[in-house]
Design goal:
With about 120 residues, the protein is mainly beta. The chain contains no helices and 11 strands. Helices cover about 0% and strands about 60% of the residues. Strands 2, 4, 5, 6, 9, 10 and 11 form a 7-stranded mixed β-sheet that branches. Strands 1-3-8-7 form a 4-stranded antiparallel β-sheet, with no helix packed on it. It is elongated, with a radius of gyration of 14 Å.
């Protein structure tokens, strides 16, 4: 089992910045990807960014140029630097890891969520 602990959410004014962190611990598995999702009230959960173990992150169009995702493989930690925040970025943000176990089973694990509120 993998546990994910998120931190960094809060209340900021439009144009402000936040940095979210998500640390994974537990079972010895291969982490295929670490990802960020968000869900606003009354809306579907949407994928924000995908961070593979190598290569460049892939972003949702609505956050390109404003958000930067990164991954520290040694610490099994993923980050989401959010700049130029807009009110429409308000949501609960969830980190997700997709893992591969020794029996070639792929599983998803989720963080507890952290609230990001952008408001004046």
């Amino acid at each position: 089992q993998v546990q994910l602990v998120e931190s960094g959410g809060g209340l900021v004014q439009p144009g402000g910045s936040l940095r979210l962190s998500c640390a994974a611990s537990g079972s010895r598995v291969s982490i295929l990807t670490m990802n960020w999702y968000r869900q606003a009230p009354g809306k579907q959960r949407e994928l924000v960014a995908i961070i593979a173990s190598s290569g460049s992150p892939v972003y949702q169009d609505s956050v390109k140029g404003r958000f930067t995702a990164s991954r520290d493989n040694a610490k099994n930690t993923v980050y989401l630097q959010m700049n130029s925040l807009k009110p429409e970025d308000t949501a609960v943000y969830y980190c997700n890891v997709r893992t591969l176990s020794g029996d070639l089973t792929v599983r998803d694990y989720w963080g507890q969520g952290t609230q990001v509120t952008v408001s004046s």
